[in-house]
């Protein structure tokens, strides 16, 4: 007669009870670890942010009493043409520079995916991000000055009348080209990291089906790297609104801000706070900063909403 054998259940490690000594010890260690970081966060971020919100409704020159003016600073922004042009320039960087940056990033990702020595090429492309933005902007200025490398190459090519790259009418477009060059390597590196995780057999199956390069990109690469694309789009939406040092160093003369035709929202806020005449308008600067903050929040939420898709497993 067969005898049934019943296996004893595996021993389960008892969980710590809410009132156990281990739980109480963990709770005692929680606050000493969290409070220092929380205090720094409050002092460095939360308190200045709240002060900026209050200051945007006031008039203050950096010293003396703070005068409450209500919505006067925001009304001034509404009618200020320089602020309008700064906002337009910011949106042009966000959309135009962003489009070209991701276009080149996707193209380089596809080229480098099957290229021998792609790790070295990736390091070269990423190089502008490893160097200080101040140094890169100074280098960009040397390239496009009247006797710079760009004009020298144009003269060698037979162009007698070279463009005035650093003139007020052309300055902003040269800045946009520089931003494309600086940021393309960064986002190419992010996208390449996502592409490296895609199994090679998926591309082999696509080759057997006779798929073209565009079909492999649209049906294999893009869906499987979409999470990285969504993160990159969010990072760009945030960073594009805050671009400051590249434009300030490249376009500004010694001790002065650039021409208003090259201003963005960040430069506008800086110029309001540190006027060349010495008359600081911290209230107007705070109001411009709050508009920038709202724009960042809205664009971040919108970008996350547009790029939201179900993640694919492979």
Automatic annotation (TrEMBL):
Residues 87-303 form the ABC transmembrane type-1 domain. PROSITE patterns: ABC_TM1. InterPro entries: ABC_transporter_permease, MetI-like, MetI-like_sf. GO terms for biological process: transmembrane transport. SUPFAM superfamilies: MetI-like (SSF161098). It is a multi-pass membrane protein. GO terms for cellular component: plasma membrane. The chain crosses the membrane at residues 29-51, 87-112, 124-144, 171-195, 224-251, 282-302. Its main location: membrane. It holds the Pfam family BPD_transp_1. It comes from the Bacteria. Keywords: Cell membrane, Membrane, Transmembrane, Transmembrane helix, Transport. It is found in: Cell membrane. The keyword Transmembrane applies. Belongs to the binding-protein-dependent transport system permease family. This is Putative transport system permease ABC transporter protein. It comes from Nonomuraea gerenzanensis.
């Amino acid at each position: 007669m067969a005898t049934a054998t019943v296996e004893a259940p595996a021993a389960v490690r008892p969980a710590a009870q809410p009132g156990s000594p281990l739980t109480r010890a963990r709770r005692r260690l929680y606050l000493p670890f969290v409070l220092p970081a929380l205090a720094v966060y409050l002092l460095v971020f939360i308190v200045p942010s709240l002060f900026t919100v209050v200051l945007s409704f006031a008039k203050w020159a950096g010293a003396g009493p703070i005068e409450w003016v209500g919505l006067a600073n925001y009304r001034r922004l509404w009618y200020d043409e320089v602020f309008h042009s700064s906002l337009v320039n910011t949106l042009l960087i966000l959309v135009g520079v962003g489009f070209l940056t991701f276009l080149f990033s996707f193209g380089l990702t596809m080229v480098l995916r099957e290229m021998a020595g792609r790790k070295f090429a990736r390091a070269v492309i990423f190089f502008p991000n490893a160097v200080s933005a101040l140094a890169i902007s100074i280098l960009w200025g040397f390239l496009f000055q009247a006797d710079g490398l760009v004009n020298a190459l144009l003269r060698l090519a037979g162009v007698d009348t070279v463009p005035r790259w650093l003139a007020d009418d052309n300055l902003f477009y040269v800045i946009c080209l520089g931003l494309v060059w600086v940021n393309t390597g960064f986002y190419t590196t992010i996208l390449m990291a996502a592409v490296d995780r895609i199994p090679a057999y998926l591309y082999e199956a696509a080759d057997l089906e006779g798929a073209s390069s565009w079909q492999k990109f649209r049906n294999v690469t893009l869906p499987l790297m979409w999470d990285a694309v969504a993160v990159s789009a969010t990072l760009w939406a945030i960073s594009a609104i805050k671009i400051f040092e590249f434009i300030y160093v490249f376009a500004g003369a010694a001790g002065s801000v650039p021409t208003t035709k090259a201003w963005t929202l960040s430069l506008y806020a800086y110029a309001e706070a540190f006027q060349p005449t010495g008359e600081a308008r911290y209230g107007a600067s705070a109001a411009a900063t709050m508009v920038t903050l709202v724009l960042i929040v809205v664009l971040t939420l919108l970008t996350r909403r547009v790029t939201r898709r179900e993640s694919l497993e492979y």
